[in-house]
From TrEMBL:
This is Uncharacterized protein. It comes from Nocardia rhizosphaerae. The chain crosses the membrane at residues 12-41, 53-74, 81-100, 120-139, 146-166. The keyword Transmembrane helix applies. Keywords: Membrane, Transmembrane, Transmembrane helix. The keyword Transmembrane applies.
Amino acid sequence: MVVLETKSTIGEVTAIVAVCCAGLAAVANLVGAAVLLRAFFGDPARLDDSLTLFATLGAMVAAFAFGYGALLLARRDQTGRWVIIVAALAQLGLGALGLLATLLNYDPEYGTHWFAEEPVLRSILVGLGGVPGAVTAIVNHSWAAALACIGLGGLVLLPAALPWTATYTATGRTATV
């Protein structure tokens, strides 16, 4: 009987963390889209139709990007790491827009109907909803939701952008017998 001794390298650990964080972001976007659609179909007059549509589509695209990137990264494909990085940067950008809209007190003045003001704790949970959370942060001027959205993007970006993860994916798959 032959026993293979395996040691985890730091690249393996960072890649596993990146895959888990990307999977978490994919699930967060799906949950955010589900909550948004549930609220929309519960009371269609409560939410803006086009904003709901585009936020839901954005959440679906983000969930696909995070999920597919995680799958590719788990297979040691460099492309997956880049897909995760681009999706996380987009998430960070939307959160930054939400924070900027809050700080500047931006009002589009076209009568957008959206969720009512939420308490801070619930705003944080809303912000963790991915793209719908970022849209809510922009429309409602919620700094807590915007910071939660930025935190989610940063949580996904950090392990995927580390040089050890890049080195791990650059070595490619190794065949074990």
